[in-house]
Amino acid sequence: MVDTYSSSAFYRGRFAPSPTGPLHFGSLVTAVGSYLDAKSHNGEWLVRIEDLDPPREVPGAARDILVLLEKLGMEWDGEVVYQSQRYDLYRAALARLKKQALVYPCFCSRKEVAALSITGIDGPIYPGTCRNAQGEGQNGKSQKRSAVRVKTERRSIALTDRVQGFLSQCIGQDIGDFVLHRADGLFAYQLAVVVDDADQWMTHVVRGADLFDSTPRQIFLQQLLGYPLPAYMHLPLVTNRRGEKLSKQTFAAPVSQFNVLSQLVAALRFLGQNPPQALLDSNLETFWRWAVQHWQTDRIPLSGAPVGFFIK
Ligand code: GLU
């Protein structure tokens, strides 16, 4: 096993929202779960705004998220970090991979990739067109702007998640060479998250189960870059009655700045904890004291009932 943080006494975790809109009940669950896990370990809890994709961002959303966290009584440690201010770090990591010939430029359009690929765990498995054409002048395509892909390998990457359990993926086969830097100049989430978690010394990653499938890719990059591995815990996803993940696309209701206690109690219940009814009539301080003291990760379910069951 590669060097891992999971047995160290020091705990640092994070909540890493993308400012694509207001927090909804699903993001509240992630915030609460990551906060409680950190605090119950006497650890630090940092906030990182993942504003990596300007076209998807909503102006003011980052500020609104921070204001809401404060209203919920969730204090973060240190300064809030913004991915949009960390391009130099991502560029440096990419340069290190390039120096070791672990990445290559890809000139294929989305259409070309889709037409030539079979579908894997997370979209088309890149057939390796540009990897194979390396050194051949990219078929005269070198004038075009290129993406950068990482060379994946046919070996298994496994992890044991604290909630979801064991997962093994052969990245080369299940995912294919994936993009680290997009042709439009933006850095990919997979690269940025790995660089940031290492740069910020994150020992524990607690987030939504929609990212469980991404974790072997992130471990693969951590291995290539020589970073330590955080411990992972993927929380059950909150869905609506149609079984869809709560998101802007599915018109999830924003977390309200009012009746914060009832929403926090609902998030705790979703996470399988058993808060007493009396907490609803208490205050934020009492709520958090109870929640930190009684946080039990073995009560967290693999999946939860739809949001309507918890928030009326
Ligand atoms: N920014 C991602 C999101 O809002 C979370 C990324 C992560 O926690 O690794 O879904």
The CATH architecture of the largest domain comes to 3-Layer(aba) Sandwich
CATH class term of the largest domain: Alpha Beta
Bound molecules: glutamic acid
Provide the CATH topology of the largest domain: Rossmann fold
Q: What is the alpha-carbon Rg in Å? A: 20 Å
Read across the widest sheet, the strand sequence of neighbours is 1-2-3
Number of domains: 2
Mind summarizing the main beta sheet? 3 strands, parallel
* Unreliable stretches covering 5 or more consecutive residues: none
Order of helices and strands: EHEHEHEHEEHEEEHEHEHEHH
Which percent bin holds the helix content? 25-40%
| Beta-strand share of residues | 15-25%
Please state the average pLDDT score.
Answer: 92
Shape: globular
Give the CATH H-level superfamily of the largest domain.
HUPs
Describe it.
The protein is an alpha/beta fold. It is built from 10 helices and 12 strands. It folds into 2 domains: 164 residues, Rossmann fold (3-Layer(aba) Sandwich); 102 residues, HUPs (Rossmann fold, 3-Layer(aba) Sandwich), CATH 3.40.50. It has a 3-stranded parallel beta sheet. A 3-stranded antiparallel beta sheet has the order 4-7-10. Strands 5-6 form a two-stranded antiparallel ribbon. Strand 2, helix 2 and strand 3 form a beta-alpha-beta unit. It binds glutamic acid (GLU). The site of glutamic acid has 7 residues, from loops.
